[in-house]
Amino acid sequence: MRAPADEAARALFGVAEVARQPLEPVSNTRQWLGKVAIAVTGCGALGILAVAAPFVSPAFRKICLPYVPATDAQVRNVLSVLCRRTRRSALVDLGSGDGRIVFEAARRGFAPCVGVELNPWLVAYSKIKALASDGYPVLKPRFERADLWKFSLVPFDNVVVFGVEEMMAPLERKLLRELRPGSWVVACRFPLPTLKADESHGDGIDTVWLYRFTQHIPKTDR
Length: 222
Description:
The chain is α/β, with parallel strands linked by helices.
């Protein structure tokens, strides 16, 4: 005959075994959920990095040209200068960003209008917007992902650039090499360092400078 103490111990042991049985699937479920959470977090971090990298990477280049959207005043000043052109021919915006200047110039009859931008997300945004929009009397604008230093300016009569101070000297040399007589250059935020501007419009950060490229281009005293 079993002692009462043994019976009680066996009963308690049996209860403990039953109580432990559901813990294994719960533990497995938690492990699975943990792995899913880690995977989702990792994918999210990679996605954020992929989107952010083109916006951050300019800071690591020799000449930093970050994406800074044009102000409404800058857009108005650029267009007020361009719209005095009697012959509204080919135009390129170097570092076109979200494409605002290119879209507005195309709506005013400049054709072809091309935006050059290195950031793939901004290029994709501009291309989608161009496909989805209308109101262009001649041609829809076009956008290309390209390095502005390697992009040929020879086909264009009008150049718009929102630059930084460090890039204006090498850009000036590129313009002098590639543009033909009769071309117009509209520089925003910073002027070209040695060429003398024909006109300037606006104040402060909204100032734009117009350069009419002729066979003889005067330079400043700087």
